[in-house]
Design brief:
The structure is a homodimer of 591-residue chains. Chain A has 591 residues and is of the alpha+beta class. In chain A, 36% of the residues lie in helices and 25% in strands. Chain A contains 18 helices and 28 strands. Chains A and B meet through strand 10, helix 7, strand 11, strand 12 and helix 8 of A and strand 10, helix 7, strand 11, strand 12 and helix 8 of B.
């Protein structure tokens, strides 16, 4: 094995051995379970004579560094299963014995061991050759957690130690810094601190209640999308949040999607059950087919701010990122094959426009394709149409000059799709939006138009939601902006801070003028200290604080403190008003 | 009995006797059932040897006029029940015999008969003295319908003849004209003709699908309300369309309101059932109580465009007037007792502002009060609080200088309310909106604020929905405007009609400029005749048609045809653009 083949995974794996070795050194009676690598390091599970405390971690770390410096070699050998089981029983390591017994039951005859220094562990291998290949400053024991043996709550609860490990100290520090920043930007934490949303035990998990300040975010996004969609020739519809099951028999949802749906409701006096909608498409298709359509009506772009409901297991719910009620800026475009390319490019361009507006600089568009082996199972059985449609999408993306990564076997059952991953300003990845082609459902639901020659044809449908669900998108934006939203989006756009009571009247006048210009403005009255009020405006991440004292009252001016630049300057109030109105109207990202 | 006591009801009742007399004259074997008065005339149910045809009605009418001219007197007498039963059996009138038998079973010993000319009928009385008191041109037989005897579908199906009757011919004609106008303005008919909404068999009854043109109406109302509410200091929230049952146990909905709610949903892995929300209040209360509140936070005005779901029997559903999904411009104001009056007046003034905006000239505000006898049953058992709150509302309405009609025993279970009835431009009455006081639920749901002295207190809540449900309000507006909406509300605000192909390019330019100004504009291309296109714009009730020919192209002008005034005049395009933008911005009612 040459040095160039030593991967980060090898180092992490080796560190987990060193951790076990250090633990055994500290607690000779420790019983060892498993110690795999994970995406930021490694962990190891132990049964120990006492509960670990945070203070144990530096001690163990020190021991590990000491072991690294010994430049221990990793050496492997194999043994028959029975012998290994016997061995582990003898040294009182029942978890290891159980692991070997299981491998034996699966047909293995031998298992491998690795030894570093005096420490011997059951192991598949994948280590450094010697511990000198590990930078002793590249790792850190991170935290202690409980974990059931084999994840089974009827088995013993073990103690898990997590370690972080990277190539070197710089990378470790960078990771720690990023993590700290991500914690500061955590959408659940900021959601609470900025009073954006909450969950209620009485309402139920995964069903966010949007407080006034969070609702501003949703409604500003809605306003943006309405304006952009009006310009792009969309029309809007509204549909109920439920439907008879019959609609989902027609659309195929009951067949393909039932597990993700809320359970049926049985109404008095009606035979059929009702379901809450997990998607808007079938409702839109009913509006499409409510009146006869001709080629002159296409492309028809139906948009809706619909709320959909999906059943997620309560254990899978997570803040705004995984919820049961989802507000969506959704739309379906019904078009002819000739119109497809332009429509698809139009949608892609709308995505790019939004990314720019929100300062999303890094994104990946994945073209999810079908898998010919799954035709008639996972995918509608139309091999030619699949090839044809995928080629159409490829061509459109090429024309839009957007790079795509092709991923087989990830399409929707009715056609290929573009999945978009964006990266927040601190580099975290979020899957936000999709743009899907549907060549199957129009036929299935008998959606038609009359072409120039009087022939009935099925339109193609593009399903698109460039902002994804608002819950997830707002969760993303909270992290992306760290709660310091651009002024047009900010729940409170300006606060007025009169220095003393004498300045309150002027403050109210300024407040009224801003309010009349449609600005979301608050006044922090002078019954609290100036410092406290400024700090509050700061923690609330309000874009502008207007501090008003004698000088300002006299000169009809405001002392503007910008949250973004931390600048402070005194300007005429009329000047400030003009500039904030413009900043909001143009939805500026930076000032 | 003096002539001054002859009421319209007496006349209608007498006419129903004359109808029966005419029917018996035509079909001597007719068996008579009942013949009451109704709010536009009367009807009578018969068992007849053949099915009536529309042509029978003028014949019967003629016979009735003949009987009127005979100046028959109405004379009453009583007979013992048994004798009456025997009599009706003898003359083969089994329905009448059954009616008397029922009266006897209820304890009556005698029944009254009235005779006019040779015709004798079982009757409680209430007639004209003589048929000369009836204007023979004041009535009209209207239509034939089927009706089960006693409304029971297991009993025989009878034939019902409806008659219209008023004081005189002029009133009858006025009624007929109004009815014709109401039919022309029927919201279901116009909803179809103007492509506003539809219902789908696959989605379910009472669940409207809002087409693009109908959605414009909803979203313009929403925009209006958002603007007005921002000005009035409301903040907005968003809440899910469902909740755990626990919330409705706390709020009392499950106890008081279950029959009007959709049935429960049982989720995998959760013990409690979920319900769709029939009202937004409890969700808003959860937002109120999500963070601690002090007197400084009050009044807090939480507004939401919520969609609520109520279970109405499918037989009770009617167009947009009675639906199962209801979009609501809802809000709850949480305030102290000192703030109550001003808040209540503020709400009332918002109603009046809306009425003016929509040209609603006639309305009635009813103050619905509790009934002391129903305390602890229909109403929360707080006699002093009831008196106190009702007096507060009375005082507020007086201060707002709004006349109210007091109606006992119509309050909500938690407090008194104002119900508002409005009249459309053709005089039809609609119950649209309510404004309710709630002094009970805050205590029940433990909603509190800390007052100036650090004491916990319950706020008062005002529930208000000045536009009622959007479904019903739009149904009302369709009738009120006869589908010819004011420009700001019109789904299509202007259509462009180039006279010939040569004018299309100019047409497109005009279209683009209007579109860029945010106007909803369509272009009717020249491949159809000018007359046909103008007629289409006319039936679609588009506020402005811009006809463009040589003269207009040359002079950069448009020939504007106003739907409202039917005027036609040529003006510079820039002039038209300025005036339509202003008309929309100011939400003008008339031009």
């Amino acid at each position: 094995m040459s040095h160039t083949q030593v991967t980060l995974d090898h180092k992490r794996h080796s560190l987990s051995h060193l951790l076990a070795q250090a633990v055994v050194d500290m607690f000779p009676e420790a019983k060892l379970a498993i110690g795999p690598t994970i995406d930021n390091g490694f962990y190891y599970d132990f049964e120990l004579p006492r509960t670990l405390i945070p203070e144990d971690l530096p001690i163990l770390e020190k021991k590990m560094k000491h072991l690294i410096r010994q430049n221990q070699k990793f050496e492997g050998h194999v043994e028959p299963c029975d012998q290994a089981i016997q061995f582990f029983h003898k040294i009182n390591q029942p978890y290891k014995a159980e692991l070997v017994a299981d491998l034996k039951a699966k047909g293995e005859t031998e298992v491998s061991f690795y030894k570093n220094g005096p420490f011997l562990d059951l192991c598949r291998g994948g280590h450094v050759e010697a511990t000198s290949q590990i930078d002793e400053n590249s790792f850190k024991l991170d935290r202690i957690a409980g974990a059931y043996w084999r994840g089974d709550e009827t088995r013993p609860m073990l103690q898990r130690i997590y370690g972080l490990a990277f190539e070197n100290r710089a990378e470790l520090d960078q990771y720690l810094e990023l993590r700290k920043e991500a914690e500061r930007r955590d959408h659940r934490k900021l959601g609470r601190e900025l009073d954006l949303f909450s969950f209620s035990e009485n309402v139920g998990p995964g069903l966010p209640l949007w407080h006034p300040k969070g609702t501003v975010l949703i409604e500003e996004l809605e306003k943006l999308a309405k304006e952009e969609e009006f310009k792009a020739g969309y029309v809007r519809v509204r549909t109920p949040h439920l439907t008879k099951g019959k609609l989902y028999e027609l659309s195929g949802h009951l067949e393909h999607y039932k597990a993700s749906m809320f359970p049926p409701m049985k109404l008095d006096g009606e035979e059929e059950s009702y379901y809450m909608k997990p998607m808007n498409c079938p409702h839109h298709h009913m509006i499409y087919s409510a009146t006869p359509k001709s080629y002159r009506d296409l492309p028809l772009r139906l948009a809706e701010y619909g709320t959909c409901y999906r059943f997620e297991d309560s254990g899978a719910l997570f803040g705004l990122m995984r919820v049961r009620s989802m507000q969506m800026n959704d739309a379906h475009m019904y078009c002819t094959e000739e119109q497809f390319e332009q429509e698809f490019i139009g949608v892609t361009e709308m995505y790019l426009k939004y990314f720019k507006l929100f300062g999303i600089e890094k994104y990946v568009m994945r073209l999810s394709l079908h898998d010919p082996k799954e035709l008639g199972k996972k995918y509608i059985d139309e091999p030619e149409l699949w090839k044809h449609t995928e080629e159409m999408v490829r061509r459109a993306m090429k024309k839009a000059k957007v790079n795509t990564v092709e991923v087989p076997n990830e399409a929707a059952f009715y056609g290929p799709k573009i999945d978009i991953e964006v990266f927040s300003s601190i580099g975290r990845e979020f899957t936000l939006a999709t743009n899907q082609v549907d060549f199957a459902v129009p036929k299935r639901m008998n959606l038609v138009y009359t072409d120039e020659n009087g022939q009935e044809k099925n339109p193609l449908i593009i399903h698109r939601a460039p902002l994804g669900t608002h819950e997830r998108f707002i969760g993303f934006l909270i992290e992306h902006f760290g709660g310091a939203f651009p002024t047009w989006l900010a729940p409170v756009q300006a606060v007025i801070i009169p220095v003393a009571e004498a300045h309150e009247q002027y403050g109210k006048e300024v407040q009224r003028k801003l309010f009349e210009a449609g600005i979301r403005v608050e006044l922090y009255a002078s019954n609290e200290s100036l410092g406290k009020r400024v700090r509050h405006g700061e923690t609330q991440k309000v874009p502008y604080m207007l501090v008003l004292g004698d000088k300002e009252v006299e000169a009809d001016s405001v002392c503007v403190r910008s949250h973004k630049s931390k600048d402070q300057k005194t300007v005429k109030f009329s000047h400030f008003l003009k500039s904030i109105v413009e900043e909001i109207q143009e939805r500026k990202l930076n000032v």
